[in-house]
Amino acid sequence: MASTTASAESVGALPALRRLYVVRFVFAAVWAALLLVSGSELTVGAKLLLFVYPAFDVAAAVVDARSARAAGPVKGLYANMAASALAAVGVVVASTSGVADVLRVWGAWAIVSGLIQLLVGVARRPMGGQWAMILSGGISVLAGANFIRSAAQDDPSLATLAGYATLGGIFFLASAIRLSRSISRS
């Protein structure tokens, strides 16, 4: 009976998770477009965007943890909240020094949050729709290493962050679509 209850709770969490993934896709697409429009200079608007992205990740993880509490492990989501909150503060501090420092902080965050996303995706595999989250987590680790490497270039650019956000958003959309199929089969 406990496994039946857990399965029912997991199925009940799927629509909320699907909605969250769609919101994350839309947010990532809009954020990336705004970052590209702002250019590679660390203007007040760009600094605000750089802070908002990890701050939004904290809020999304809170929503995710609340909706998934009965459906599965949430420890990884708490770790993601902490990593993203530190990244938001770190980006604010780094933005006073320059683009290279922002890329270093963003890269470290991408590595840590990517590992967390990969582990959460693996833990959620029975729910369905998680292959994209697992793949996205792995790619985030690689992208983070690339951000740190690109910080050492002569003219580092924030434009790569827009591509990172866009790809992450596409993975969230792919997971939302896969979860829709899991919901319709339930």
Key traits:
186 residues, disordered N terminus, mainly alpha, 6 helices
Plain-language structure description:
The chain has 186 residues and is an all-alpha fold. It has 6 helices and no strands. It starts with a helix and ends with a helix. The relative contact order is 0.16.
Q: What is the rounded Rg?
A: 17 Å
Molecular shape: elongated
Summarize the helix and strand pattern as letters. HHHHHH
Mean pLDDT figure: 87
Q: Can you count the beta strands?
A: 0
* Helix content class: over 70%
Biggest sheet layout: none
Q: What structural class do the secondary elements suggest?
A: mainly alpha
Enumerate the spans where pLDDT stays under 50 for 5 or more consecutive residues.
1-9
Blueprint of the fold:
Blueprint: H1 2-38, H2 44-68, H3 75-94, H4 99-123, H5 131-150, H6 159-185
Short description, anyone?
By secondary structure, this protein is mainly alpha-helical.
